[in-house]
Structures are given as C-alpha cells and as structure tokens.
Amino acid sequence: MAKQDLREVINRQILSGHLVEVSQPVDVVHELASVAHAAEERLGVGTVFRNLGGYPDVSVLSGMFVTYQAAADALEVELSQLKRSILEALADPLAPSHHQKDALDREVFAGQDVDLQTVPIPTHAPRDAGPYVTAGIVASRDPETRRMNYSYHRMLRLDRNHLSIMINPGRHLDDYRLAAEGTDQSLPVAVFIGVHPAIMIAAAMRYPGDELEIAGRLLGEPIETVPCGQYDLRVPLFSEYTLKGSVDLAQRVVEGPMGEFSGLYGAKSEEYLLEIDSISHRPQPIYQTILPAGVEHKVIGASLPREPVLLKSALSVSPEVKDVYIPPYGSGLLAVVVFDPRYEGQAKNVGMAALAAYTTIKSVIVVNSDIDISKAEELFWAVLTRADLQGDLALLPRFLGHPMDPAAVRGLVTKSVIDATVLPGSPSLDRVAYEHPADLDRYFAAG
Ligand SMILES: Cc1cc2nc3c(=O)[nH]c(=O)nc-3n(C[C@H](O)[C@H](O)[C@H](O)COP(=O)(O)O)c2cc1C
What we know:
Elements: H1 6-15, E1 19-22, H2 31-43, E2 46-49, E3 59-62, H3 68-75, H4 82-91, E4 97-98, E5 107-110, E6 132-133, E7 137-141, E8 148-152, E9 155-159, E10 162-165, H5 172-181, E11 186-193, H6 197-203, H7 212-219, E12 224-228, E13 231-236, E14 241-255, E15 258-259, E16 265-266, E17 269-281, E18 286-289, H8 295-303, H9 307-317, E19 323-325, E20 334-338, H10 346-357, E21 363-367, H11 376-386, H12 389-392, E22 393-400, E23 412-420, H13 440-444
Parallel strand pairs: 1-2, 3-18, 4-12, 20-21, 21-23
Antiparallel strand pairs: 2-3, 5-17, 6-9, 7-8, 7-11, 9-10, 10-17, 11-14, 12-13, 14-17, 15-16, 19-20, 22-23
Helix pairs in contact: 4-7, 4-9, 6-7, 9-10
The structure holds flavin mononucleotide (FMN).
C-alpha cells in the first residue's frame, strides 16, 4: 500500500483506536451524524461507517482529527512536534509530482450519468438545509500565475448535477472568481473528497503557493497528482472521489442554514452555483465528511492550520515562547501562548504578536509553562490567580474580527490580551504538588 493512500491511514488509526468501525446499518440523513457526534463527544474517537442504507460498497469516514493525538499519529509525528512540523513544512515546501494520466482504477460517470444522489453526502445537524459536502477540497487555478490552489468550501446538494458553493471574500478562489468574471461565463474547479490527512491540513491553510507543497513536506515525499480531463487542473492521485465542474459566474442560489464552527447555525446566504460534469470514484470508495460544528470542524478549520502561524509570530518577539494553542472549545476565537517572561510587560508583547498573526483571533491569554493548557480549568486558574485585570488586561476596541463572531458589531470586535504570567521567583509558582505513586493500581486491587 502507498503512504499517500487514505486507506492506509484509516487502517492504522483503527488499530490504534482513534477510529471505530460501525457495521450496524445507518441512514445518511441525520443518523450517521448523530452517531459520529456521540462518538466524538463521548468517546473521543472518529468513525468509519461500513453499512449505509442505499449505498452498497461505500464507506463514510468522519472524525480523522477528533484529537491532537489522532492528528499526530495520522501524520506519524510526535504529539510534541505536531505544530513545529507544520511550521517546518511551511518554511520548506516540497512540490507535487505529476502523472500524465490517472494511474488508479476509477469508476467514471459523465454527462447524463452524473447523479449526486449516488454520493453518500450526509445531512448532518438537525436544522441543516440538506446534505452538505463539508470535507470537499476545491482545486482551482490562478488565472494569472497558473499556480494550483486548494481550499475547503461548503457545498449543498441541490439536484442531480448541481451544488451550491460558498466562496467567502478574501479566499484565493474568490480572487480567481473576480478575475474570471469580466471575461468568462464560468470558473472550472475539481472537488476531491477523501484524502491523506496531510493534504487536509494543507488545504485548510492560507498559503500563497500550491498547498500540496506543504502536504508534500509534511509527508516527506511529493504528493502525486493526476490531470482532470478537459480541465487544466490537478488533483491528488489517491483521492477517493473527484467531482469536476464549473462555477457559474452569472447565477446565485440561496443556501443554508448549516451548523458552523461557532457552534451556531450560519444563516441562509446567497452563494454560487456549481454544475458538476463528471463524478469519479475508486472502487468501494470512502466518502469523507466533517461534522458541522463538531470538534473536528474546529481542529481542522481553526486550530491546526493557524497555530504554526501564531507560533512563528510569537517566536519573532521572543525565541523563548514554548507553545501556542487554539483550543477547539474557543471556536477559533481564543489563543493561548505559553511563555515564561523574564521582564515585566514582556508577556503582553508576545501576546500581541500572537493576536496580530491572524485576523480571526479575538483573545489571547499568556500563561507560564507550569500551566497544563490542555485543561481549561488550569487556564481559568491561571487567569484568576495570576492576572489583575486592571493592569494585566489589554483591550483593543474596534478591530476587524471573525465574520461569524456573533458578538461582532458590523464585523468589528474588541480584541484582548490577558497576561496571566508571573515572573521567576513569584510565590504563585510554588504550587501544591502531590507525588502520585507509580504503582497506584496496587492500592485499589481487591483483597
Ligand atoms: C471544514 C472547512 C470548511 C470551510 N468552509 C468554507 C466555506 O464554506 N467557504 C469559504 O470561503 N471558506 C471555507 N473554509 C476556509 C477556507 O477553506 C480556508 O480558509 C482556506 O485556507 C482558504 O485558502 P486560500 O484562500 O489560501 O485558498 C473552510 C475551511 C474548513 C477547514
């Protein structure tokens, strides 16, 4: 089996307990999502559904990135090295390799045979408008530089051969749409679903080059790509599904609501229309989905792709910054920086650098390295016992924030940095610490 094949990763993750197979029959309308969500929330695992009503020989994967440990194992890096390895991949990208034609067996449906009903797109959250493609990565080409671009866009199935596609301002795909609008009727794209986790992370990053370069370095070998028939586009060789088509630049459709990473439903909105010309998939394909508003949505949408950027920015102020964390429970609005300051005020400078690194971050909390940032209660404890908000809280009113922040007014938010650190020698570092016996089980053994 090949290293770039998602199937190999799935097998490994099942063996290590990060993914659980579900062989009971499930309906893709709501039932699949409610089982996957319960598995995520209660068991901390992702799911591979093997028995889908109406879709013989197809599996659905949900929750590849339910925990950081699962992400690290999927990428075959130590958990402690996860962020640094993404940062290193950004600094030293590796170009993809090109096959002249498709090198894998694939079933292809084109023209009148295109039917999106044959793809097991789940209807997820209770009030979602319908079946949404949530883990689809859109391949597009910059009309000027001719470089490839890869990004996620939510897509609602409308009928046999149409999806809506949400293209937010500021995305590269939106730049290409604008560039094409004056001269062309449509913008060709290919949507691929079900790929190696390194490609998933790379496509979630804002990157001025071809995102597969980041994935290549993360994997340690060039990502193999294949061409897309009449379209001048390239997709990863091992993609499970590929939908080819074009965005109609003249039409808009209303779509939504859909659960968003804010934990709320994104409202109905006017989006673009994507017409699908062909659907291809590997034999016994694995369709991949990301639960809207679930943990994975936040980990892949807000945490993993942004932490390396924040880390780089904070490190530029002090090389002694130890870690950054964008906790999924903060919906991408909160960042934590781990830093032991030597001088008064230094932690706020570091916090400001992290805050400035990404527009969507609303609040940064800086803590000493004795705080276990994986625990929200430790963070609260640090803020309450080590910060005096009169002096340790910096408020920055009327900054551009996250477009989906429900507390924003006309897109503007008050940003903040909380310095919850103390200087070396502070009595606050002298915490009560019990030593736990290494052989604890012995104390609770029967008899
Ligand atoms: C699961 C997921 C869903 C996303 N949905 C959308 C979307 O519907 N519309 C959009 O414009 N961006 C969406 N994004 C964000 C972009 O895909 C992301 O910012 C990407 O890095 C844009 O890259 P680019 O502008 O460098 O091409 C989503 C991201 C993730 C991870």
